[in-house]
Amino acid sequence: MGESSSPKTHLVAVGFLDELGSKDRYKQILEQDESSGGIDGRNLLLLRELEWIRKARRELSTNLRVHQKRSVIEEVLTAANPSASSVFRLPHVHLSVFSDSLLLHFKLDGSVEGVVRQLTTVLGSVGTFFLNSLSQGHVYRGALEVSAGASLGSRGVVGPAMSEAYKLESEVAQYPRIVIGPNLADLIESASEVPSSAIFVATEARLLSSMVVRDSAGTDMLDFLHMPAQFLKQQAEEVHSPVRDIVRHAYENVVEREAKFIEAGDKKLSDRYALLRRQFDDKFPNKYLVL
User: Fold this and answer.
1) CA distance 269 to 92
2) Would you say residue 38 has pLDDT above 80?
3) What is the pLDDT averaged over residues 132-150?
């Protein structure tokens, strides 16, 4: 019998998101003794970890579906010109879990227009997930990069794309944020120059570019607060907004962690959370951040 077909190498986008603080929680599980519940206590803590991992994967998957919804202009243009549907091809994003980390990957579309749509969907989804997780007290550090890779479907991806995304997360990110790799940053920059024949995706191309900011050290990162800030600018202050609540809760959790590390005398970690806090301070007026 012949061998099963081997996975093919493609240009793939990979996202690696690692939850911070889980190692301390795992240590707490191992330190459970008879006086504090013993095995039952360990099982309870492990169950909580498993519940969050399942919830995190579900939330990221939901975010991808929400961001994949076509806009009104897409529906109109596709109805008028069926061939335009290829421009709006949405990515088939594979999600997998490794311990406390989430891995996502997808093959890039062959056209500039398709890449714009794919990346806008994924960067928006990851940004939403990052903010929502912060608001629930779960902090992630991660990276997104583009390179060669072979997809294994729900089992993950192998190749330079995976190793580069992991290296960016573990060596470059340093604090809670999502780093944009150099290959992906270059691709986003080139994709923002939408050809005149595809003027209907120009708005998304501008949105995609606005999702990436550069820090003082020259590192590109995902601006996870861009879309919430734009949304809240358009809302009356007196109108109750779930988005404002999420932003406030996320900010409170960041401030709380920064204060905890200051009290513990851990300057390294307190400085890192200060960097994250400043992203909120720079993006929002104080009235949005204080309950």
Assistant:
1) 36
2) no
3) 92
Q: What does each C-alpha distance from 7 to 1, 87, 102, 119 come to in angstroms?
A: 18, 26, 21, 23
Using alpha carbons, list the distances in angstroms from residue 291 to 15, 228, 249, 258, 283.
Answer: 33, 17, 9, 18, 17
- Arithmetic mean of pLDDT, 95-115: 82
pLDDT in tens, 170-200: 999 999 999 999 999 998 888 777 664 555 5
Q: What is the pLDDT of residue 26?
A: 63
Strand ranges, E, within the chain: 9-20, 94-98, 101-107, 139-151, 157-158, 178-180, 212-214, 220-222
The pLDDT tens digits of the residues spanning 223-235 come to: 999 988 888 887 7
Q: How far, CA to CA in Å, does 245 sit from each of 67, 180, 223, 233, 277? A: 20, 27, 19, 14, 16
Distance between first and last Cα of the chain:
67
Nearest of 235, 234, 229 to residue 250 by alpha carbon: 229
Residue 118: CA atoms inside 13 Å, Cβ hemisphere, count? Answer: 25
What sections of 81-151 are H helices per DSSP? Answer: 112-135
**Cα-based distances in Å from 163 to 39, 69, 146, 171, 219:** 37, 31, 11, 12, 18
- Per-residue confidence at 237, pLDDT binned at 50, 70, 90? low
Contacts of 119 (CB under 8 A, 6+ apart): 13, 184, 187, 188, 191, 208
Query: In 3-state terms, the chain is what percent helix, strand and coil (to 5)?
Result: 60, 15, 25
Q: Cβ atoms within 10 A of the Cβ of 148, count?
A: 13
| Percent with pLDDT over 70 in the chain | 74
Q: Is 205 helix (H, G, I), strand (E, B) or coil?
A: helix
